[in-house]
């Protein structure tokens, strides 16, 4: 399954794996990659498949936009309790991504809107190209976030900015998004996927235990009080440092066989 370039077509989310990185591409460009139930199901199975065979994930979108968010055509038909289950299902799928065994890198361009931003926020690193714009138009549509946005996007940018975005429906460009912590990188138009792949390939070479600790321990510790955080950190630290892989990597550095930390480019 790890063959370079091996592909497996899903209808609405394509899956390919190359050099240990699974690339999940939202593939519904005619509807601007709106997240229908079908898209969420395909995303779920792609995330599950990546757990077994990839060391990092890249999520990107086909066409001119990353994602227009919730499929508004499907939304209208739900009863209140169906709406609760729908939202909880998104939570489950996005949790699988955020609490994945391997890190996820979002490659963003064009609209990163509503549920599209919630999906991006469940990834660990976001790379936006200059065409990217972020928005939370839920207020103008008469609805609310339901894909974990009030928790994840709110923690990323802060509740005041998120409140403003939801009340006014304003769009935030890539640079502003970077300043607001909605993305960690801004690259020229058309280069987000390549940059995300480069970063994912780099992260894929880390010790799996370190990557697991980074993506699973950090958000949990962030939700804890200081004392609990320090306590949990000491255990995660001791567990990772005594793994055989850590010992080999530390020895490699001391024997001058490992790369030094590079100066910023
Ligand atoms: C859609 C959707 C959608 C496009 N659901 N069909 N999201 C929104 O409120 C964003 C709504 N979409 C837009 O504002 C624009 O489509 C875009 C700025 C993203 C892109 O504009 P553009 O000019 O490239 O495309 P378009 O012509 O508006 O859309 C092309 C087609 O996609 C068109 O369908 P067609 O049959 O007329 O060709 C659109 O109707 C369709 N389309 N976006 C369904 N979102 C778990 S809670 C999460 C809550 C939310 O995500 S709220 C945010 C919803």
TrEMBL record:
<dbReference type="GO" id="GO:0006635">
    <property type="term" value="P:fatty acid beta-oxidation"/>
</dbReference>
<keyword id="KW-0456">Lyase</keyword>
<dbReference type="GO" id="GO:0016829">
    <property type="term" value="F:lyase activity"/>
</dbReference>
<comment type="similarity">
    <text>Belongs to the enoyl-CoA hydratase/isomerase family.</text>
</comment>
<protein>
    <submittedName>
        <fullName>Vanillin synthase /trans-feruloyl-CoA hydratase</fullName>
    </submittedName>
</protein>
